[in-house]
C-alpha cells in the first residue's frame, strides 16, 4: 500500500474520522476524500505524505484547525478544505508549500488575519478565503503572488483600504471583495487591466468609480451597497446635484435675499425699490426657466467631440480554445513586448514570433508592419481567408489583435520548422538548384512536357530565375507579389503577332499546337531586357509598359547574373 500513487474515495457516504495511518503513504501523490460525511480533525500525520500533490478534503464535516504540519508538503499543488467546520487561523506554515497552485478554504469558521506568509506562494493562481470570519486588512504581501488570476476574500470582516499594490497583479482575472468592511476608494484597481470580474459591493467604500480602462465592463451590481460610492454606474453623479434641486435652492436663497433687500431699503426712493424688485423678478424667472428644462446629461462627459478620442487598451480576440484565458497583456509579457529573441522568421511585410502559452503550447505570432501601405488591407484579407479555411494540412488562425506594435495574427506553431529553413537551410536540394542555375542548366529541372511543347524556352528560364528572386535571404531583395504579377504580365506573348504568318506555319505543320501560352512569342518581345535593364527605355516589347521596365530595373540585375 505504501507505493499507492492515487487514493480516491470521494463522493461516497463515508463517515467517521480520517485515519492517521494514511500518513504512511509516503509515495501517494493524490488523496481524494471530498464529498463524504467525514468528521473529526485533519490528522497532522498527513504532513508525512511528502510526495502528495493533491489533497481534497472539501465538502465534509471536519472540525478543528488546519494542521501546520501540512506546510511540509513542498510538492503540494492543490489544497482544498472548503465547506467544513474548521476553526482557528490559517497557519503561516502553508507559505512553505512552494508548489501550491490552488488554495481553497471557503465556507469554514476560520478566524484571525490573512497571513502575509502567503507571499511565498509565487506559483499560486487561485486563492479562495471567502465565507469565513477573517479580520484585519488585506495584506500588501498578496501583490507578490505574480501569477494570481483569482482572489476571493468575500464574506469576511476585512477592514481597511484596498491596497494599491493589488494593481501590480497583471494576471488577475477575478477579484471578489464583497460583504466586508473595506473603506477608501477603488482607484487602486484601475491598473488591473486584465480584470474580467470585480465585486466590491456592500462595503464602506467612498469616492468616484473610475470610468477609464476596464471599469466600463463591470455591471452596477459590482458596486452597490456602498452609500458613499458614486458614479454613473449607480445613477449617482459625483460632486453634482441634479439641476432642478440646485435651481430650487437658488430660488430660496434669492427670495430670502430679496426680502432682506426690500426690508432694509425702506429709506430708499420708490424708483430704487421698484428697480430692485424688477431685477429680482427677472433673475427669479431665469432660474425657474433653467429649473424646468429637462435634464439631459452630455453623452461626452469628459469633453467635446473636438477633443481627441482616447482609445481603450489593445484587446486579444480569441478564435480557438487553445488560447482561452489569455489576454493581450499575457502575450506581451510572454514575448517581452515582442522581443527580437522570439523571432523565428521575417518577410518584407511581417515578422513571425514564437510564444509559449500558459498551457505550454506554442503559437506563432505574425506581426504585420504598421507602416506598410497595404497593412490593413492585408490584415483584413488574411482574416477573411485563413479564418474561414479548415484543413488538416493548413495552420489554423487562433486569434488576432490590433495593437501599437502592429496588427497581430496568431497561428498554430509548426514544430517541423518553417519554409525559410527549407529554402535557405544547409540542404542538398537548395545547393543543387542554385548550382544548376549558376551552371546555366536550369532546363534540367523543368518538366519535360514543357520543353516538348514550348518554343521559347528562354521565357521559361527567366520565370524560373524570377521565382528564385522570391526566395532571397534578405526580404529587401525579394519582389512583392504585386511586382511579380506585373513582371509576369510583361512576359506574356504579344497579341499583335502576324496572324498570316501564324496561319501559314500552322498549314505547313511547322508550328506546334498552341498548348501553352509561350507557343509563339515574337522575338522583339524579348529584346534582351536583362542586358538593357539600366536603360529601360530600350525595352520596346509591346506588352511592357514603362513602369514594368522600372520593375525589371529594380531587381533585374540579380536575374541578369544568371542569364545568358
Give the end-to-end Cα distance, rounded to a whole number of Å. Answer: 82 Å
Question: Could you describe the largest sheet, including whether it forms a barrel?
Answer: 9 strands, parallel
- Low-pLDDT sequence parts: 240-251, 294-312, 496-506, 508-549, 557-564
Number of helices: 11
Using the alpha-carbon principal axes, give the shape: flat
Strand content: 15-25%
| Arithmetic mean pLDDT | 72
Structural class: alpha/beta
The total number of structural domains is: 4
The CATH architecture classification of the largest domain is: Alpha-Beta Horseshoe
- Biggest sheet strand line-up: 1-3-5-7-9-11-13-15-17
* CATH-derived topology of the largest domain: Leucine-rich repeat, LRR (right-handed beta-alpha superhelix)
Q: Could you characterize the architecture of this molecule?
A:
- It is a single chain.
- With 564 residues, the chain is an alpha/beta fold.
- It folds into 4 domains: 6-231, Ribonuclease Inhibitor (Leucine-rich repeat, LRR (right-handed beta-alpha superhelix), Alpha-Beta Horseshoe); 243-292; 316-412, Phosphorylase Kinase, domain 1, CATH 3.30.200; 419-560, no CATH class.
- 24% of the residues lie in helices and 17% in strands.
- The protein contains 11 helices and 25 strands.
- The chain has helices spanning 243-264, 270-292, 328-334, 375-386, 419-424, 428-438, 448-453, 457-469, 481-490, 499-508, 546-560, and strands spanning 6-8, 15-16, 30-32, 37-40, 54-56, 61-64, 78-80, 85-88, 102-104, 109-110, 126-128, 135-136, 150-152, 157-161, 174-176, 181-183, 197-199, 206-208, 228-230, 316-318, 343-346, 350-356, 362-368, 397-403, 406-412.
- It has a 9-stranded parallel β-sheet, with no helix packed on it. Strands 20-24-25-23-22-21 form a 6-stranded antiparallel β-sheet, with helices on both faces.
- The radius of gyration is 39 Å and the shape is flat.
